[in-house]
Design brief:
This protein is of the alpha/beta class. The chain has 31 helices and 30 strands. The strands form 5 sheets. Strands 19-20-21-22-23-24-25-26-27-28-29-30 form a 12-stranded parallel sheet, with no helix packed on it. Strands 1-2-3-10-5-8 form a 6-stranded mixed sheet. A 4-stranded antiparallel sheet has the order 4-9-6-7, with no helix packed on it. Strand 27, helix 29 and strand 28 form a beta-alpha-beta unit. Helix 19 crosses helix 20 and helix 29 packs parallel to helix 30. The N terminus is likely disordered.
Length: about 775
């Protein structure tokens, strides 16, 4: 880190002049040299707006170190001693897991972090890295302890902020096992420790214009709670003991006693509140509250709320008037709720709606990864899921593939070495081989023999070459051989050294090659291989872990005909590599990719989606971005600016951060989709499925384990709309909101060949028997 004194001018930290790998710092020691841009940034900071003390700002500005962090630079590490607090002046930072792979929260400009450790002498409670290029103002612990006592009001605000976050942290850690069952990782559920309950509560319309001290009392008393999809939060007729404030997810107010319980009285989402009518007006709960998605919320006990508001008489009357207004609105929306005496909800209905099989809980395949998080009650439940993660491969090395082939050919080592040496002679022209006078081979001409050899695996072709000299000549010279080469079954033996011998054998004839699971190949061996196959049209590089972006540039240069590529689980391929491949093909006028698989390439981001829109929009037919968790709605926003007229197959499985907006962009950009997988896209809602209505050619939809995205209403709307091309395959496995009404709609409107409704707790055994008895569905999984 370079320290730069006050002689440096403000443009140093405002311009993009720092290198991508360095973190620069500027210490300000003279009040007269304080950059005006710095003071302006501090004035705009939410924490300092609350202090409203200009002298304090000038004082801390003189002691601040300004640091510029490049993207992915580490700012603080969980567990380390706390030596400074930070004010984010520009850019954004990520709260992330210890391995930096999962992002739990993004803190925007104006955030403050690190004050808990300074004010309470605690180690760091989280790891923070730069999300984008950002400017951070740093105050050391010594400076804080020296300056703050001189400004009691400011010290009070900072202590409030730190006390609120620490209280929430302690409550999160003291939650029992049952309360911790959530679809988010344990660490992810403590994001509030970093953003503060105050920041979230003061955005709620319920606490608009409330005094500072009142908000502080409330922030100290709220408790985090988590509910799974379809969980009953409270029942109609219950006594009101809690207020609820939604942080994320969706809640429905319904009447489960009503036969039309699938129609909600009201649907609430992030920023909304409920439960105030019963708490403030001493009335029983007027409706049932049910979680539609996995939800995160704060609860405020009635006793705590009354205690906090008792010191503010004006607020007490204000909240009571708000509750009466809410009650009036509820009576207008659902008068039937108040026509009959409020009683207990039918127990049978509750059993059907609140009891969910553990295997039906919305999760992602990362939940089975033991390296991510410690075992919890939720992860134990998810262990019953039948979807398995990619199997681990035991890695071992044996570079003697040719020697193995020689033993199988029943020839001596010396003879095989002579054969391989002879085969290594390169030729660019095909030589016609006659097969007369060679025993049973007289039955086959070259064309028929070529068809036979085409169905042999690589080692069997080598065995065939050892039958006779003429067979060896056929393998060596015929253009019917080695057009398709599959080395995946030899994956543990394929190394850079073995590639040298393989190159001499295939001799530029190959059009399709599979190196799936060949995890020993590096950029060096790959370069040698692709430079020898200029006719290559399709390549499978699944789990070639050692390949980097350098190989993508080589591929574009050496294989002009390549249109099908599988890069699944190539961990080191980044946005830059995809750009080098696509831009290289475009600059040389080569045909672009038609089939591309990028599943489990976790380094890819929205930038890759932009590259695909730029280079492949007209050619792309099939795309797989399963588990590319850094791709967000913004990536699909790039797609909305163009069209993908040929795209018919898209796999978005486990893209758990995509929302309804991404689907809206998608249906606009790719109107001719025929096959779409949204499995485990848990952030979607009903609107996403209903948005697929415009895909008139859709035939295959996988919406398994989509949480709130699939309901009786959305499925009926979708089936009813597809009049041009009926859906033939529908996967609704693990969709907790669908009921027997969905089965009725399927029987009435759909002409399915395949249907999966397994692990759907809302579908009765009788409904499953009815659909089996109908015989209308050929492949049924129930």
């Amino acid at each position: 880190m370079i320290d730069i004194q006050t002689t440096e001018r403000p443009p140093f930290w405002l311009n993009n002049s720092t290198s991508s790998s360095s973190v620069s710092s500027m210490e300000i020691s003279d009040e007269n040299s304080i950059p005006p841009e710095l003071l302006h940034s501090l004035r705009q900071h939410s924490l300092f707006q609350r202090t409203n003390n200009e002298h304090f700002l000038e004082e801390i500005a003189c002691h601040m170190h300004l640091r510029i962090y490049s993207p992915r630079d580490v700012i603080i590490v969980e567990g380390e001693p706390s030596k400074a607090m930070f004010f984010l002046l520009k850019g954004s930072v990520d709260v992330c897991s210890a391995d930096f792979e999962r992002i739990y929260a993004t803190l925007p400009k104006g955030s403050c972090f690190g004050e808990i450790g300074i004010l309470f002498s605690m180690p760091r409670t989280a790891t923070v890295i730069a999300s984008s290029k950002c400017i951070v103002a740093l105050l050391t612990a010594d400076d804080v302890n020296t300056i703050l006592p001189q400004y009691p009001e400011v010290q009070k605000v900072l202590l409030f902020e730190a006390e609120e976050r620490l209280a929430l942290l302690n409550k999160s850690k003291s939650m029992n096992g049952a309360e911790r069952i959530s679809h988010k990782p344990l660490t992810e559920r403590n994001v509030e420790e970093f953003t503060g309950a105050r920041n979230l509560l003061q955005k709620s319309p319920y606490f608009k214009d409330c005094p500072e001290e009142f908000l502080h009392h409330i922030s100290l008393r709220v408790e985090p709670r988590h509910y799974a999809p379809n969980d009953l939060i409270y029942k109609r007729g219950d006594e009101g003991t809690d207020l609820y404030f939604i942080l994320s997810g969706t809640v429905e107010l319904v009447n489960l006693n009503d036969t039309r319980s699938d129609i909600p009285v009201e649907r609430l989402s992030s920023g909304d509140y409920f439960g105030d009518i019963s708490v403030l007006l001493n009335k029983a709960r007027a409706a049932d509250a049910r979680a539609v998605t996995a939800i995160e919320l704060y609860i405020l006990r009635k006793s705590d709320f009354i205690k906090a508001v008792s010191s503010f008489p004006n607020l007490q009357q204000h909240f009571k008037e708000m509750a009466e207004k809410s009650l009036s609105q509820l009576k207008t929306k659902a008068p039937l709720l108040f026509d009959t005496e409020t009683g207990k909800t039918d127990s049978l209905m509750l059993d059907q709606t609140s009891k969910i099989k553990p295997s039906s809980v919305c999760s992602t395949t990362s939940d089975q990864d033991p390296t991510l998080l410690p075992q919890t009650a939720a992860s134990a439940f998810r262990g019953n899921e039948t979807r398995k993660r990619r199997a681990s491969v035991a890695v071992w090395s044996d570079p003697y593939l040719v020697a193995l082939a020689n033993r199988n050919l029943k020839q001596t080592n010396s003879e095989q070495q002579a054969n391989l040496k002879e085969n290594s002679v390169s030729t660019k022209t095909s030589k016609s081989v006659d097969f007369y006078g060679d025993g049973r081979l007289t039955l086959f001409n070259e064309e028929i023999l070529g068809l036979v050899v085409e169905h042999l695996d690589f080692l069997s072709v080598l065995r065939f070459a050892a039958v006779s000299k003429r067979c060896r000549d056929f393998v060596k010279y015929s253009d019917k051989v080695f057009q398709k080469v599959d080395l995946s079954h030899l994956n543990k033996r394929i190394t850079d050294e073995v590639i040298e011998s393989i190159v001499s054998l295939i001799d530029g004839r190959t059009k399709q090659i599979s190196l799936s699971q060949c995890f020993y190949i590096t950029d060096v061996g790959f370069k040698q291989l692709v430079e020898s196959v200029p006719l290559l049209e399709a390549m499978d590089l699944n789990s070639c872990w050692l390949l980097t972006d350098k190989s993508m540039a080589t591929l574009a240069l050496s294989c002009p005909r390549l249109t099908q590529l599988d890069l699944s689980n190539c961990r080191k391929i980044s946005d830059a590599g995809i750009f080098q491949l696509l831009d290289g093909k475009a600059s040389r006028g080569q045909p672009q990719l038609t089939n591309l698989s990028l599943s489990y390439c976790k380094k890819l981001s929205d930038m890759t989606m932009s590259h695909l829109a730029t280079f492949c929009s007209q050619s792309l037919v099939s795309l797989n971005i399963q588990r590319c968790t850094r791709i967000t709605d913004q990536g699909f926003g790039k797609w909305a600016e163009t069209r993908f007229p040929s795209l018919s197959t898209l796999n978005l499985t486990d893209c758990s951060f995509l929302t309804d907006q991404a689907v809206a962009y998608l249906v606009t950009a790719a109107p001719h989709l025929r096959s779409l997988s949204l499995s485990f896209c848990c952030a979607l809602s009903d609107s996403a499925i209903e948005g697929l209505i415009t895909l008139s050619e859709l035939q295959d939809l996988d919406a398994s384990f989509c949480g709130a995205a699939v309901s009786d209403v959305s499925i009926r709307s979708l089936l009813k709309s597809n009049v041009l091309e009926q859906i033939r395959c529908l996967n609704l496995r693990g969709c907790v909101r669908i009921t027997d009404m969905c089965i009725k709609s399927i029987l009435e409107l759909a002409k399915l060949n395949t249907l999966n409704i397994s692990q759907c707790p809302g579908i009765s055994l009788n409904a499953k028997q009815n659909i089996k008895a109908s015989g209308s569905i050929i492949n049924l999984v129930a």
